[in-house]
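Posting here for the record, re: iron/sulfur cluster.
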Amino acid sequence: MLISEIFYSVQGEGILTGVPSVFIRTSGCNLRCRWCDTPYASWHPEGEEMTPALIMESFRAFPAARHAVLTGGEPMIARGIHELAYGLRAAGFHITIETAGTVEPGGIACDLASLSPKLKHSTPMPGEIDSGWVERHEQRRLRPDILSSWLKHCPEYQMKFVVAEEGDIEEITALIAETDAAIPPHRVLLMPEGRSVEELAARSVWLVEVCKARGFRYCRRLHIDLFGNRRGT
Ligand code: SF4
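Prediction output follows.
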């Protein structure tokens, strides 16, 4: 599979924020979010071909690690991802899969499903990318049926949304209603859209109020606070 980076850091988002983890970022994505902060793994995929066995070997450099995060790009379209997850499970790692939730889990080994469905504002504007991708992104980005499969497959999950404006909240509640599971509000994480501390801070003020009003969980981006928007963090 094509791997854009493997690095050891602390988890920056979600219910395991702060937990030291090895991140395996697969390269390649079936979506093209206009604000994607890892374009080197989606819009312009780059990296090195690695087998699951070779990836497992690289874990020797991180002897204290107990948590592994499969991220992307879209890790669920990476060739060999099931084999890699199986190997990590056999080696005793806690596995988080960070996915947009557009590809069926297919029985993958997973301890925390970090599902991040993409809202309307993620769709590229005409002219930013060829029109075929605008259409494909729009058709693929929300799959309530596949999200429902993930919720059944992995009872430990978080539903994480990048929120740009207050109008996004209605799209989120409509999507949640479409999944055939009762999702408790504290499993719904709202994260401000932004790639800098300043952008995040500007959106966090009203987003915290939305969380208080609806019972959702506010999700910070610790890695941006600690390291800025940089690779390998
Ligand atoms: S799904 Fe994730 S990796 Fe793919 S384009 Fe969107 S933000 Fe980027």
